[in-house]
Amino acid sequence: MKKIYFLFLLSFLIMYSCKDERIEGIGVENPRVNFDINAVPYAKLSTYSFFTGELKNLVPAPKVIPYEPASSLFTDYALKKRFIWMPEGTKATFDGDSKTLDFPVGTVLIKSFYYNTIQPGNTTKILETRLMIRKSSGWIFAEYLWNDGQTEANLVSGNDFTSGSSKNITFKKENNEILNIDYRIPSEAECYACHKLDNKPVPIGVKPQNLNTTYNYPGGVKNQLQKLVDEGYLVSYPANIVSTVNYKDTSKPVDIRLRSYLDINCAHCHQQNARCDYRAIRLSFNQTTNLTNMGVCVLADEPIDASLERIITPGNHNKSVMSFRLSSVDESKRMPLLGRTIVHDEGVALLNQWINSLNQNCP
Description:
By secondary structure, this protein is α+β, with helices and mostly antiparallel strands. The protein folds into three domains: 1-30, no CATH class; 32-243, no CATH class; 246-363, no CATH class. It has helices at 2-17, 158-163, 188-194, 208-211, 224-230, 254-265, 291-294, 321-326, 345-357, and strands at residues 51-52, 59-60, 65-67, 79-85, 108-118, 123-135, 138-146, 153-155, 165-172, 178-185, 196-197, 200-201, 214-217, 220-223. A six-stranded antiparallel beta sheet has the order 3-4-5-6-7-8, covered by helices on one side. The chain is globular, with a radius of gyration of 23 Å.
């Protein structure tokens, strides 16, 4: 009788062990990502199975690879966790230091925005998760808004994605300053405005120049590009990539730090065939060795007043349009226009330090 009962129990467990569902209240993890390119974007973030355990912990499932660019885009001091997932058997290819990796159809780039000093209590709260999904027709955006219980993130669609929205939060900065802001959840048009190149949506941060740095993976520290090669996600990459740096790293030269900062925050618009193509400056890292591209001694397209005629006035940040725009919160004057509602004090300080270090005379 015991043998019969044992065989019955064993067959029951075998029958249900491959199913991603709950048995007697016990969660059974499905280690495989759930992805149907014809059905995405799904209504709920959890449906993809990008993460294991509690969703809010953002613990990646196998083959969901974390990454972090050398310098990060400023988004009102939000912290970010980023991941790459690609379908089995597919690989990205290298197309140049400053060009986004050429990802195959089915690739998903995952970026969650959160704060870990929400007041009161310095609690952690994830506000949104943005996906870029590579379909055969090109990249699409999928925006997910987290619920207050941090148990699920739901797809923003229809009028909500057309108009965008805001979330009021109070958080503490590293210097202990407490800020209350209306954090902006972008509309589809706002996503496209920043991610547009040649009138097509493209990723921004996943360029070899930004990923040619180390990352502390669970298995140890490794170069991020090499990690993608080892995971079967990248064919290869050259050894001589001209790379950006972490703009916070004060051991690096101030000009390299600033060029890295401008590349990740500004270059996606200030380049040929992008949103600010008509502007005088070009701020991609591979172009800013030329001070003219940085705006040094260049007359501004739209001078602010008589004292702010040049984009960069060497030695004087108070007479430089770029410093003025990065210090403004006025939507008609600030830069970047999208992605921030408050001033990035550390970024402005870096810019001003560099401007004030210049000693050339303008003609």
